[in-house]
Amino acid sequence: MVVCGYCRRPLRCRSDEEREWMERLSRDEVCGAFTPAGDSERRCDHCREEAYCSSACKDVAWTTFHRRLCPQQPHAEVSEEQQEALHQLWKEFRGVFGELPLLVGKLIANVLTQLDDGKSPEQAVDSFEHFVVYPREAIKAEDPVAYDQLVRMAHITNRALFDPRIPQLFEESVYLRLAGIVLLNSLGIDFSCPVLNTPTQADAEQIKMMEFDGAVVCPILSSLNHSCQPNVKSTLRSQAQARGDSCRVSLIAKQDVEPNEELCISYVPLSWTRATRQTTLLKNYFFHCQCERCVSEAAEAEDAINM
User: Fold this and answer.
1) Do 268 and 285 meet the contact criterion of CB atoms below 8 Å apart?
2) 207 falls within a domain
3) Domain total for the chain?
4) String of b and e for 189-221 (b: at least 16 CB within 10 Å)?
5) Checking CA distances to 227, which of 1, 17, 21, 29 falls within 20 to 30 Å?
6) CB 13 within 8 A of CB 1
7) Do 28 and 89 meet the contact criterion of CB atoms below 8 Å apart?
């Protein structure tokens, strides 16, 4: 899927099969969760690097981060060397390393736009202080190649975005800290799938195949604990998108929630086995899950062994 550069809403399909299926649907048959190929896609007026689902998302992206990331930004104070580094940065964003450098770049650019808008350096970085950080040592131990790539990206970002008003933001350790924030705090969200007025069985099967998740870094979501039997899930709903509020993440109750009951989400796919869930949670989040489901499944496994 190609997604909006701001709200991460899906824009169009990559595969021929998905594209053909979407294009044969009339506009009024789709609930608005998807934008068929070539339909109402907006791009940055200057660089054309990122696509957006709406003019609103394009404008908000420019205001909050893209005006500092744009390799063709119309600012006289941007040196030729910085523009060259910005072009290199975008080449790296489109590389095989995934979206992590792009997300970190957007976080840094957001800090710079806040400075441009009159905030102090302390105010601009305040939102980062509330996140738990994935340990730098864990990144290096887990994947040395990825760690070296992040260090390289830190140096490219320094050349492209350095701002003397906040030099500490461009230290290698700070870049790795921001990468750690994204790694540990980005949580999966479900996007609403197309809803057809008169779906055929083939359409229903295709919708099932096209189900997918996005990811979001959100302070409130990041404060929720994990359970393998969660009472809420996070979602980006098409109803919100229809109101032009496409980047609003909602928590949807999966069951009745009692007053003062803790809200929990799942950090891993619920269809996984207990062993896989436990291994992934320990590797990525550094804890052994002792939720009711895990305790129950462990007891069942022990009973089966003792029979």
Assistant:
1) no
2) no
3) 2
4) bbbbbbeeeeeeeebeebeeebeeebebbeeeb
5) 1
6) yes
7) no
Domain final residue pick, 189, 214, 247: 189
Neighbours of 85 (CB within 10 A): 20
What are the residues facing 190 on neighbouring strands? 213, 235
| Coil, strand or helix at 290 | coil
The pair of three-digit structure tokens given for residue 115, joined into one six-digit string: 């400075």
Query: How long a stretch of residues is the chain?
Result: 307
Going from the C-alpha of 10 to that of each of 52, 167, 215, 245, 247, the distances in angstroms are 9, 36, 12, 15, 12
Q: Is residue 232 part of a domain?
A: yes
DSSP state of 287: -
Domain residue limits at 166: 77-189
Residues 254 and 180 in one domain: no
Would you state the pLDDT for residue 141?
Answer: 81
pLDDT greater than 80 at residue 14: no
Per the CB < 8 A criterion, the answer to whether 151 and 172 are in contact is: yes
How sure is the predictor about 247, in pLDDT bands with cuts at 50, 70 and 90? Answer: low
Find where tokens 């969200």 sit: 189
Q: Residue 153: which H helix or E strand, with range?
A: helix 144-161
Amino acid letter, 236: L
Q: Whole-angstrom Cα distance, residue 138 to residue 142? A: 6
Pairing type for strands 225-226 and 51-52 reads unpaired
What is the reported pTM?
0.71
